[in-house]
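Question (not urgent): is this output format expected?
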Amino acid sequence: MDGALGTGDTLALTPRPVLGAARYVDLAASERHTCAVRASGEVDCWGDNTFGQLGDGTTVARPVPTMVRSAERFTQVSVSSATSCAVAQGGRAFCWGANGSFQLDVSDPALRLSTTPVRVAAAYTARAVGAGANFGCVLTSDGEVACWGSAAVGARLGRGQQILVSECSPQYCDPRLVSGGRRYEALAVGSGHSCARGTDGATYCWGRSILGGAGVGTGETDVWVPTRVAMP
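Got this back:
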């Protein structure tokens, strides 16, 4: 559907190579589109483009890899169903696609989407970025994690149950560090929850935990702050 395979087909029952001669060093896939970082630093995306999540300046679906319109050279990429994000050389983070929940770190309600990369979390030097369904997070060069997005997503921002008015407008929360003061080595962001590996070797998660997705063993639907995963 929508060319998400990057092979020019709508169905493949066995693995097939993505079209083109590029060699990739990082890749991220959602259910509707995929983005990959070339060895040379450009990003190619393909698949659904309803919200501009392919970053090529259009909203036209692409069945084959299509280069993101940017002069930046990137090192890492992350995607959700309607938004894509990447870290450029020098630690600058960018996102493109849907902004209906302010996941582009832009609080202007009139900006519903961007078809080209927009700088996000500019106050931080990013090692990695994660695109959630209606929020985003970065792992900073100092080993901290900062998240932003809709004020309605609550737990997904990892700041605690009470989000201070000083941190958020009525709708939008700008990038702030998650609670706990820990240092982290790796970050993974899903559609509704996030996890990070601490420098202590433990894994911490926060956000929506339907079906136990946050792995904290409490049975709670929402995990409001980074909480250590309960290991067997």
